[in-house]
Amino acid sequence: MGLKGLIVALFQLDKDWTTRIVMAMLVMGVIWGLLGVIDSLMVRIQETAWGTLGTLVMTSQEYYGGVTLHAERDLFGFAQQVIYALFIYFTIKLLNLQPRAKWLLNISFIILNISMMFMEGPIVAYPVFNDNYFSATDWYYISPMGIPGYSQYVVSPLFFIGWLLLDIFTYTGGIWIVYHYYIASKSLKEKLPVPLVYFLMVTLMFMIGYSGVTAADVWDLLAYAGVVGLNA
């Protein structure tokens, strides 16, 4: 099997659109998951070396980068993407629907994976080490970013743009799923099977749960641009 055959087999490019988009999401999810595992391994190596030998084998910037990125990639690039992919596949197949608005889900898929590329670790703003990195990556709850006396780390606006893109994926992908349940409701003569009710409810919970972080991400970017106050 050549490279072309491998790509066709891996992404199921010879199958229907639903299978292709789901396989693309699963493959990208696994890739981000593996990268997150590497980040997690970096964290464990640092902690093990310090706990057993009293030696730091990585810089604090690398360590905190691993702490942040293993969560970003494993929770969102991997877990959320795979969850959405499975919901999409079983929704279309079990409801026996012809997928509509394919462009919306295609764009959602692209946006999610771009958002993972924007997620980043800390940038050391001041030369003296200070163990308070988590104040550098959140402005929420009066935890200011990159202000002397509070944090010696900062992150670029790309971090928050990445989060905003993740929010957009959550809503556009979720709306796509819910829209197909609406289509199915017009022809259903009986109640939804329990698994489909579960898929629908979890999708709605994703969108409801993201409302707060979406508002915070928008505020972060507006605060960075000076449109609103940091803690107003």
TrEMBL record:
The chain crosses the membrane at residues 21-43, 75-92, 104-129, 158-182, 194-213. GO terms for molecular function: cytochrome-c oxidase activity; heme binding. Keywords: Membrane, Transmembrane, Transmembrane helix. It holds the Pfam family COX1. GO terms for cellular component: membrane. One of its GO terms (biological process) is aerobic respiration. InterPro entries: Cyt_c_oxase-like_su1_sf (IPR036927), Cyt_C_Oxase_1 (IPR000883). SUPFAM superfamilies: Cytochrome c oxidase subunit I-like. This is Oxidase.
